Amino acid sequence: MPATRTLLLPLVRATLAGTSALALVAAAHAQEAQQEDTTSSGDSTALETLVVNGGSGGVITADGYVGISSATGAKVDTPFLETPQSISSVTEQQLRDRNPQTLLETLAYTPGTWVNAYGFDPRFDSFYVRGFDVTYTGVFRDNLRQPAAGSSLFKNEPYGLEGVSILRGPSSALYGATGAGGLYNLITKRATEEAVREVQIQVGTHDRYQGQFDFSGPVNETDPVYYRLTGLLRDSNTEQISVPDDRAYIAPAFTWKPDEDTKLTILGEYTRTKTGGTAANYNDFYYGGFGSVTDIFLGDPAFNDSIQNQGRIGYEFEHSVNEALTFRQNLRLSTLHIDAQYVYGYGPFIVDPLDPDNPYDDVLDPTRIGRMAGVFDERLTSMVVDNQLESNFATGIFDHTLLAGIDVAKLRYKALGGEAEITPIVLADPNFGAPIATPAFTSNDKQDQWQLGTYLQDQIRYEAWTLTVGGRYDWVWTDSSMTDLTTDTTTDVSQNDKAFSGRIGLTYETDFGLAPYASYSTAFSPNVGINGETNQPFKPTESTQQEIGVKYLLSDYNVLLTAALFNIDQENGVFWEVIGTKNRQVQRGKLRSRGLELEATTSLDNGLSLTAAYSYTNVKILEGAAGTVGNHVSSTPFHLASIWADYTMPEDSVAEGLGFGFGARYIGSSYGDDYNTLKNDARVLFDASVHYDFAAIDKKYEGLQLQVNATNLFDRRDITCTSNYCYRDQGRTVIGSLRYNW
């Protein structure tokens, strides 16, 4: 069996466990706006339609903040109005205006997305949607799965993204092993046909210093080869002692277009990140009770390094055989290595003056905290490849977009870990900094997993109606080997899973842009690991969803409004369960999530861009551990609401070149444990920005811009408890950016 994980790394660690007609209309609208000079060049509010090279990676066609179409919902470029599921986007313009520094900040203004479950924690991008954890099963990169296992979670640099497409709800009919909440497709910056030249420096709170660049364009004037090179270097502390946020990032990309029918895009990346192995504060379970968070750092600066190196290389190939038939193959190879040290305090120090073998004579010393030190060394390598054949044809009065595909994923994961008791600390005066010996490795866990999936989807159009029907069958083979190095015993476990997934949806699109829809979809996700309660392999997690909604695109005003009602049933989900001061992964019987989501986005001619969202989510335990049935799931807020607006002063005004952004995020109340004995209070967090274009002073400064962004402007540090463990929200951060484009 694998070693029991502690509360320190808890709650995200898994023990072995072609352009549409709508887009063309939007492009014409944007070009007309530009011809009328309603926006200034280089201005952050300029309306721009971003049609990027790379057809099946999920790239977004957008007009400012408003996403128009993407390949995320159907694996072929499809208008959002025709996609029979709730879909959102974070566009490149939103990324520029809000300047997010993490993936969680990137997603904070999207409906149904809960990013504060673990408070301040720069180690992992852990988040929920519609009440379900999507950290391991819901993150995709360029429409390909981004595998994860244990603490091996890929870091995601927002500056390397063109945007994010979000498909909510079960989506296995096309994507295979995904969870109940949906998927987040991170879209990598690609080579552009027009020149892009940008350099930027950033300075921020906690001694944050960062330099970054982004260059793109044709390699030369004759060959149909285009390049992009994006990179950054950051040296930064954080609000927590001994938890840095250092990063080096470089991402080359190339596109070759020998003719109009053939395109090859190569995407690469290397990232090195240094942070802390522990980021949380000590929870005083024994004397303060659950929910009592102290100001004492849980770790120790003498033993708290976490260094992760990761790399990716892949390609997207597309060839149009004729007007009706297109072949695509997308492939990516990824590797990740994380080497970390950590310390955690497990509670009052245990004094045993009499019989060490008799726990009943133990005495707790409330003045000292007992501590453990640990290490882990994890490696993850993966290969994913997706082969697609798209056919466009008509049968009588029906037009078809038929997509057939086969994808294969291979994952290899290895984890070494070990822990040892170390000197306790004194509560009144924590004696941090004393040398700590590195514990020996006591466990060696290995996993190999193959996944093969074949799928078929037909988008059938008749006048204003679109019927989307799809199905997929998956086979998954997983071999796990768990070695206890202290006894030199090995346990081998093999599990084979297979399942059918489907989706059917119907959309009706009116002449004035209103599109009601209804859909039914399913998801299937094999679980890697061992049930801590039964010591047996996890069963696959399965989910079904019924969703109805409406989307309304006011193309004349560049406004998109959406609303959705959903019901999701999930069986055999994997969750963390707290046993004393330890935690383990167990499999719960059944959950049900019901809710409402509303979203509005716009970028107007007058310099105003806005995105607003509201979601109500009610997640209940229908079958589970004793005392939890009928309760609400830990940490999921019943209400989430947000609004972000950015406004740039008009030309020829007194304050020409000046712009402001302001955002508010309401986080409703929730329960801190599945027994519903703890309560997380509601709160509102505010963000803001100010930016200035120096071209307003003199045209010789064109391309030079200054921007300042603040998150959690009023520095609220509320407590959020998730699965019985509690965390403080991240405090205020302020970052100033000086950017030059030419």
Automatic annotation (TrEMBL):
One GO biological process term: siderophore transport
GO cellular component: cell outer membrane
Topology within the bilayer: Multi-pass membrane protein
Disulfide bond found in the keyword field: no
Molecular-function annotations in GO: siderophore uptake transmembrane transporter activity; signaling receptor activity
Localization per Swiss-Prot or TrEMBL: Cell outer membrane
TonB-dependent receptor plug domain residues: 82-182
Keyword Cell cycle: no
Domain TonB-dependent receptor-like beta-barrel residues, every copy: 256-713
PROSITE patterns in the cross-refs: TONB_DEPENDENT_REC_3 (PS52016)
Signal sequence range: 1-30
Transmembrane segments: none
Keywords: Cell outer membrane, Ion transport, Iron, Iron transport, Membrane, Receptor, Signal, TonB box, Transmembrane, Transmembrane beta strand, Transport
Family: Belongs to the TonB-dependent receptor family.
NCBIfam families: PRK14049.1, TonB-siderophor
Name of protein: TonB-dependent siderophore receptor
Provenance organism: Sinorhizobium terangae
